[in-house]
Amino acid sequence: MDEENSAPFGFEAAAIDYVLLTHAHLDHCGRFPLLAKRGFRGEIIMTSASRELARLVMLDAAHLQEEDVHFRARRGGHDGGSNDNDKPLYSTLDALNCLDHFGRTAVYDQVFEVSAGVLATFIDAGHILGSASIFLELEEQGHSTSVLFSGDLGNAGRLLLRSPSKPPHAENVVMECTYGDRLHKPLGPSIEEFYGAITETFKRGGNVIIPTFALERAQELLYYLNQGIAQGQLTKSLQVYLDSPMAISATEIFRRHQECFEPATAKLFQEGHDPLSLPGLHFTRQTAESIAINSVPCGAIIMAGSGMCSGGRVRHHLQHNIGREESSIVFVGYAASGTLARRIIDGAKQVSIFGEDILVRARIYTINGFSAHADQAELLAWQKQTSAKRTFLVHGEDNIMRQFAAHLAGTRVEMPGPHQVFEL
Ligand SMILES: [Zn+2]
Predict the structure, then answer these.
(1) Ligand 1 centroid from CA 127, angstroms
(2) For the segment 259-285, what is each residue's pLDDT rounded down to a tens digit?
């Protein structure tokens, strides 16, 4: 992946005039600083919420790469020569410089002219805060056509954000198919399972560790905890630690963008009830505050990154709790194979954390119903509504894309490879 990230784009960065961003996840905006570094001088357009989140995500990615280089340099010693591995793909300074290219802000459902012959409309994709599908109406030398980019599509019926908007008709569709091969578990039972895990753990006198992604999942869990207290399913005295500077910043960005929320949630905000806050919520930005959590023996919910336990503060909390049978580890998201999270989920009896071998005695929960992605049925319904003549499948594993393609009817299906060019 490192090699692919640093590989040539397959086009001249300086030849690009406009970039339209669907949403601020790292796999969508993570190479913006590199684009700018390689000569892009155009305009990057996105929604107002995406603008704030993309800034956070790019700066965090730059910082992690810089740390990685320092770590490798310390471990590898000083053998004289330098090569590309000694440098981050981009630095914090590159990420900051890239912000100069953030131009106009897109507003949901408002058509605007990107440039002559190119009209764009951002449509709520219901995936993360500020996420959009992008509809382009194109005209060139009397020929006109339209392209709809799905971006990542959300899972309908979640409570914090709106469900994806109905897409317009488009001649061409470029769509994701992350979960093109499966149906999700319903949300309601997953929330019940989540509350149950917390209540049982507190009865045993332990802590609940939730390895979580900083963006979106952390805020959704805060919202579910808030609702659990409001509905009397969880105790008011709940002590929750959001132990991730990035998740704390993302939560603050969420609070500033109530235009993205589900109407009932937006109403709560308007009435002065912040559904992302809790009576016992602690934001621990500083390292010293994070270390202090280690002395909490029981009754704490600790949310920290990384979601896959591959790094970050959550490893310290696992070190202190995974060996205690009264504590619980609650997994609420995707865990790739080879990661510590995956090993624990798969039932490892013993794990090694910071060089210490620890027997897994804590109770392990895996709750699968919190996905931010549309499932196969939702993707198919969305595609059908577009009435597209041609459908380009992207953003999915090869075998999943092929399975998904087999379900599509009445459209020409393409599965483009990198650098492939199509005439519309
Ligand atoms: Zn995404």
Answers:
(1) 7
(2) 999 999 999 999 999 999 999 999 999
Q: Using an 8 Å Cβ cutoff, are 226 and 213 in contact?
A: no
Q: Yes or no: say if 275 and 261 are a contact pair by the CB < 8 Å rule.
A: no
What value does the mean pLDDT take over residues 300-322?
94
The tokens of 194 are what?
């989540």
H or E segment and range at residue 250: helix 245-256
Q: How far is the CA of 25 from the centre of ligand 1 (A)?
A: 5
Single-letter amino acid code for the residue at 254: F
Distance CA 411, CA 252 (A): 42
The Cα–Cα gap between 201 and 388 comes to: 50
pLDDT digits (tens, 9 = 90+) for 143-186: 999 999 999 999 998 889 999 999 999 999 999 999 999 999 88
Separation of CA 314 and ligand 1 centre (Å): 22
Distance from Cα 332 to the centre of ligand 1, integer Å: 16
Ligand 1 centroid–CA 56 distance in Å is: 15
> How far, in Å, from the CA of 27 to the mean position of ligand 1?
7
